[in-house]
Amino acid sequence: MNAIVALCHFCELHGPRTLFCTEVLHSPLPQGASSGDISGQNEQAEEEEGGIQMSSRIRSHSPAEGASADSSSPGPKKSDMCEGCRSLAGGHPGYVSHDKETSIKYVSHQHPNHPQLFSIVRQACVRSLSCEVCPGREGPIFFGDEQHGFVFSHTFFIKDSLARGFQRWYSIITIMMDRIYLINSWPFLLGKIRGIIDELQGKALKVFEAEQYGCPQRAQRMNTAFTPFLHQRNGNAARSLTSLTNDENLWACLHTSFAWLLKACGSRLTEKLLEGAPTEDTLVQMEKLADLKEESEGWDGSEEEEKPSSQPDVVEGQELSKCSPETSLMPDCNSWNVAHRRLSVFRSLRHMRQVLGASAFRMLAWHVLMGNQVIWKARDMDLVQSAFDVLRTMLPVGCVRIIPYSDQYEEAYRCNFLGLSPQVQIPSHILSSEFAVLVEVRAATRSSLYPTLFDDEQSLNKYEFVVTSGSPVAADRVGPTILNKIEAALTNQNLSVDVVDQCLVCLKEEWMNKVKVLFKFTKVDSRPKEDTQKLLSILGAAEEDNVKLLKFWMTGLSKTYKSHLMSTVRSPTSSESRN
């Protein structure tokens, strides 16, 4: 995070002063530097850790060195500083921590070395301890502008038996130029900085209580009540924070805390590029995942023990491919997502169209888009599952209900994709129904039926595909508009398989938008049929097949979208606007 964290103090002699600050440097790491190294007072240790360049630069510009410091360096002179205004001793190189993952250095000293940064920190320090104060003088506050940066400031008191009012005033400030980021980090910064303050106040309170127990100051001051206060100081009024907390490692600990605060605050918030609102498929998938999570949380061991040990309807060796009645309605059920299938027979819609033929594929695709039941009968479960995997790409996720493989016929209300073994008997009324299509996979009568389409790994030349339906689609039938566009994309050899997949996504999104308009128009607003016909003409979906498709796809709308529309209808403001 590009920010500066500083500890400030209101000195009774010199006013607001910066005691200690930590800044972020994005310069490359020196060779041999290790993560989390701290450059301390030992020069030899600094050379071993590879931080000598940083430490030397800090030392040459340290304002605490008095006469040896450059006259142009920022910061007050040594004569303008007392023990209460000084943190690091003269000649102290400061502290440096290296983050190898991000090649960032966290540098701590009493003042920033850059003159512009020194001015920004100095102004924030003065404002945090003078005019920008929250009620009670203790607590967080936010201020700043575009020119001098934005500041999160938390003021607090430290107990001191020798100070006026037995306490001294401090603040911890965080300065950065990004106002939105700083505001979003308010809860995080408040909690962590509050923890640092509590630790400092706890240490100071112990020292204060020990000093008061040994030599109470209140009675002594009552005896000298008429003596001017300025004559009582005798140099004891200026006490360093290390003396108040009795912690010689205070500044090293503060450097560690400030460096961690900058790193953690910078990594907790990340920017994500949003390309738009979530699609209906995304919303439906999220809802189904939430439903599955609720079901899994509701399961317990007692229910599992009550289940029978064997399933009479499950053929041996097919347990993994037959879904339970509850999970079979989910397109992403566990048996459907068998990892690393042995063979992917149908690679794409274009591949399936080549295998089945143009007329048979058009009939099958028409029934898929209309929401009719698609039944595949085959011995090879991988073949059936790959066929469903390809065909489902033409439908919205909410319209897909799959039973990949079963040893008995399932009604259409339970699934619109059904895989069956060849021995299963299908009711005669289903075979003659116009709302179902059957694909039978038989052994090929010739040894090589499709020699040019397949390589050695794929053995579709062993099969013959027979597509039948009670309502065959005539060749001259116009069909739904989306089917014609899908076929045009599949027949265009200039389009790769990936491009065709993107075309399918765009077509589905286009027609789902039409479904949303029709749903609101008919189900929410309850418009008459005449107005509905006009709307369908405007949408370019007045043909019979397009209307059937829209009505079927309406079942795939997410619950989130439907509830949102219904809630807007029930609200008083929406009813007033319609009136």
TrEMBL record:
GO terms for molecular function: GTPase activator activity. GO terms for biological process: intracellular signal transduction; negative regulation of signal transduction; negative regulation of transcription by RNA polymerase II; positive regulation of TORC1 signaling; positive regulation of transforming growth factor beta receptor signaling pathway. Belongs to the folliculin family. InterPro entries: FLCN/SMCR8_DENN, FLCN_DENN_C_sf, Folliculin, Folliculin/SMCR8_longin, Folliculin_DENN. Pfam families: Folliculin, Folliculin_C. Residues 86-558 form the UDENN FLCN/SMCR8-type domain. Interacts (via C-terminus) with FNIP1 or FNIP2 (via C-terminus). Component of the lysosomal folliculin complex (LFC), composed of FLCN, FNIP1 (or FNIP2), RagA/RRAGA or RagB/RRAGB GDP-bound, RagC/RRAGC or RagD/RRAGD GTP-bound, and Ragulator. Interaction with FNIP1 or FNIP2 mediates indirect interaction with the PRKAA1, PRKAB1 and PRKAG1 subunits of 5'-AMP-activated protein kinase (AMPK). Interacts with HSP90AA1 in the presence of FNIP1. Interacts with HSP70, STUB1, CDC37, AHSA1, CCT2, STIP1, PTGES3 and PPP5C. GO terms for cellular component: centrosome; cilium; cytosol; lysosomal membrane; nucleus; spindle. It is found in: Cell projection, Cilium; Cytoplasm, Cytoskeleton, Microtubule organizing center, Centrosome; Cytoplasm, Cytoskeleton, Spindle; Cytoplasm, Cytosol. Keywords: Cell projection, Coiled coil, Cytoplasm, Cytoskeleton, GTPase activation, Lysosome, Membrane, Nucleus, Phosphoprotein. It comes from Himantopus himantopus. Residues 297-306 have a biased composition (Acidic residues). It comes from the Eukaryota. The lineage of its organism: Eukaryota, Metazoa, Chordata, Craniata, Vertebrata. Residues 32-83, 294-325 are annotated as: Disordered. Its main location: other. This is Folliculin.
